[in-house]
Write a structure and sequence with these properties.
Keywords: Dioxygenase, Iron, Metal-binding, Nucleus, Oxidoreductase. This protein has 343 residues and is of the alpha+beta class. It is built from 7 helices and 17 strands. The structure holds 2-oxoglutaric acid and fe (ii) ion (FE2).
Length: 343
Amino acid sequence: MRTKLVCLSNLTTPALPFCPPSLLLLFLTFPSALLRTHRFPPHVWRELDSIRSRLPSVGTRTPVTEAPPSTQSSTEPCLVLSLRAPSLAVMAADSAPNISLPASLDDARIRGMPLAAYYIPDFLSADEERAILDRIASVPKPRWTQLTHRRLQTWPSELIQNRLVDAPLPDWLNDPVVSRLQSIPISLDPDTGHIFSSSPHCQPNHVLINEYPPGIGIMPHKDGAAYHPTVCTVSLGSSLVLDIYKSKNDGALDTTPVCRVLQEPRSLLITTEDLYTDYLHGIADVDEDLDLSETTVANWGLLRSKQPFVDGRNPRGLRTSLTYRDVLKVTKLGNKFSILQKR
Ligand SMILES: O=C(O)CCC(=O)C(=O)O
Ligand SMILES: [Fe+2]
């Protein structure tokens, strides 16, 4: 497999928080045991190891070029050094050769929304989408909670009184989604982090998987106090429209959405801040979304392709969403036992 390493105008970025450029290059060239003492988070070590394992001879035989990755035609592994790209592309380019992520979330900002929201159309490749859908389909039946019209899975577990019992997400939910989320800086300003940098655990610790057959949606709602106010939703399978509503002053719901977001399969939608606390979101129970156009869809300009929607319609298919959030309160299992023992 071809490996691309895009490097590095700014290596003191969130995905490599402690890594100066020279150290990364040194590691790739001479991965001595001494460097192991450097305090990278485990996912960074894994990523660096994986990059290295696919480079036959970094720094000697490997071609070094300033050309952008897309112009590389060789099928041989190669090291691409580009001083134009931000360092975070190192992770993204290597772990998803067919994916081209924005250099920062600034480039993915949904301008037609009242507050901070971002849309990245091809956040996952088709192969990654298939692999995740296969994993979802292969979990034992009792893992599903069947609601009247849709079903859901909750990972690592359901919340109890707004608390999560501490447990890691399974690998297939972490990688590639979480590592990729953490690889995109909010802006190119070196002081800004990634979208979960300011959340209590610096990463999502909870994933809700919702499966919507055609004609089925979810009532307008707010996500409540259990989570840090950043929601990352990965859409799989087919497209649908998410409606955003504002409460009226008397608390009633204004039934006309303030804006609509069209979510294509493999896309990522991030909503944050007041959009979390002051607005509601919902999905209509319709067999097709109608009246889709540049003026009615907030993220129209960011879509992967407008072509499927040129007649303004989106016939619904089976759509699966993965909602990544950081639960604020986490209980260690050990604490649980000690609470029980005291009773
Ligand atoms: O499926 C979606 O896009 C929305 C899911 C949602 O709002 C929720 O689980 O709270
Ligand atoms: Fe929600």
